[in-house]
Amino acid sequence: MFIAFTGMPGSGKTTATLYLKDHHNFSIVDMGRIVRKTMNDRGIQINNESLRAFSKALREDLGPSATAQLTLPYIKKMHGNIVIDGVRGPEEVEYFKENLKDKKFYLVSISAPDSIRYSRLSDRKRYDDPSTLAGLKERDNKEVEFGILKSMKLADIVIMNTGTEEEFFKNLDVTLERLRGDLFS
Prior knowledge:
CATH topology: Rossmann fold
Strand order of the largest sheet: 2-3-1-4-5
Number of strands: 5
Helix content: 55-70%
Radius of gyration: 16 Å
Structural class: alpha/beta
CATH class: Alpha Beta
CATH superfamily: P-loop containing nucleotide triphosphate hydrolases
Strand content: 5-15%
Shape: globular
Order of helices and strands: EHEHHHEHEHHHEH
């Protein structure tokens, strides 16, 4: 089974990914990490600006599914259930569906209001996290340019992540059971 998470920054994609790894024995493929590894391999310094510029250049060179194209070789080497963190555009979704036909592929969108996402990102303090609500809006706009809202509309399941972490994990468990049920129906 392949589960890919999509959603705006701070919605809970990485938390969901780590939960599936730790509690349901999924292997993780982090699309952002693969992009950053590719940048490192090419000697490109990583910061907010260079990451966005590199991602844009990749899409210009390889097309809108560029990140999925970079990710697929890693996936092909893996076995068992796999969770993909960070699907951005609808072309990535279609690329995965087309190239992962041997297993069931599910897209799960995780949503949360701006105020909650901003609070989470402020607490996380990762180098690319916005320090203001205006910064969050700017980052969201860049994600929209990559097609994230379109990919969110393609989701098989939408999870609202507005409560406690425990509630979110229960929602993930229910979602996983629904998806597993689909495999056997």
